[in-house]
Amino acid sequence: MIYNLLDTFKKAYAIKGDDLVIENHKLKEGLYIKIKQDKTMESTIITKDSVEDDTYEWFRKADFYSCIINTNKAVGDKKIHSNNYLTLFIKKKIFYGDEKEILPKEELLQKIKKYYDILRSDKYNNEGIERDLGRKIDLEKFEYCQNTIIEQINSIYDIIIKNDKAFDNYVRVYFDFNDWKLYELEFNRYLYPNVFNSSKYNISIGNHLYGLSNMNMGLNSKKPYLEHKTLKCKVPFHIEVKDALLLYKYAMWLQSCKLGPNFKSFDYDYKVPLKDYKSGETDIYFINLRNKNGEIEFGDFDIIPGFEETIDFEIYNYIEASYYDLSKKTIIRPEYVKYNSKKRYNLLNAVDDFLYNKRLIQSFRVDFKDIKPPKWGNKKICNLLIMTRDVVFNYIYKNDANGLKAFVKKLYKDLVIEQIKQGKKKGIDALNTYIAVKKLFQLGGEELVKKIKDIRNEIEAFIEDKENHDLEDKFQYSFLAGQISYYLMSQSKAKSRSHDVVERICNYKNVKKINDELKFWFKRYGHAISFDYAKFNKAFSMVLGFDKSEAIDEDIFLAGYLGDNIFYKKEEQ
């Protein structure tokens, strides 16, 4: 993965150098002070709305070369966040403000002195670093910067106090020698001993230093169990130090890209941030970027073939259902126009809205361990989300349908049932979406839609006919059992009515069990049904007469349960 990503970045970097990254670097909010060679100082306040003028551009470039990788890789004290003798980054609260966090001036000067001592130490000035950099540290400029900071510390305090109300966060001090090569040199001097995950894994081959990349790598002294204990090489791979430096700059460039799924062609030119996929592209790297403690992390990486954005996905009211809208005080027949533009992302939005309670897309950005009740739903919904989210992700962004097809057959019905338990409207939307997904993947969805319509007509004809009829197969039984189940449940006068019976009936393995369940509910609510209601009496006797040991068709049962109920049809007319 690392070398795949670096391949095209190297070509773009060879043309533009560090400017490739610098032009996308964003300054953090704070007070920025420039010390000129005559020791005069200029200051400016940077906010989120600052105009990117010449002043901003100067600080942008100096700042890019002066930031530490993270506080664990600070030069010395973690309170100082700059990386070279040309700069000094300290949070405002250390200089001025709350007495609990402020540092006495003398103590602060001690930390600054220690900072400069470390920058001058062998850690940053050994033979290997000087050989690779091609230059030793400029001691004259080093001492000038160190002495000037100490001499001018009171002036810096004065600027902070003067601008106290105008900024928070950082105070950042930079020396201007009108020499960007000097900034670049000192930036690389800091990176050489810090760019790897840990110096423990460094090896030298000839004059070349190799180490474990720090990018997307969690291996450290607190996680020895991640080492390859049975292999001679205990880490996944080594990377040459110059490639590691480039990789770090690539990670900084990625900060300009949006988090989440991104696509990069093999011949990507880096003129714009990474982007969404467009139909017709081929030879693509898929990169899922995540934020981990302020750093870019690869949530996923893959090489994928080109695919079409357009898919044959549309949702309609396949089950001929409607529901009563309490706020509008009217019956609503659901429509799904906004999901029917046949775009792949419409499928994602539909299943997110109707099957996952808008938790699916959100879950792409979190770890599995963080998906737990009650924040993400009940325990069953959390388990279904954890088991199915990756297969949806892989289909939407990588066109890998195999996993999703398997889970649609195994688990999506459970998602529908969970939605039904939350209310009829949610159940209708979920079942129509489930059928639409089955149609898309040719899992019998087309046949199911036709069967639902045919069975409804057959059942209505049986009941309207003066002659008696027996149900002919389990499909007719399943649909009529669904209709009767809903009708019986709807007789309840309880303020909060439950649809939990659906899950119980779907779990029964044979018709006899279901008929026993229906008898139980008839005994409970039969008093609300007219003794002379011939339509219901005939239908109930047809269901009870269908005494076979086979299991029902759950899809047809759910369509019967949620579809317009034939026992209310006469009253509606």
From TrEMBL:
Residues 445-472 form a coiled coil. It comes from the Bacteria. This is CRISPR-associated protein Csh1. Keywords: Coiled coil. It comes from Crassaminicella indica.
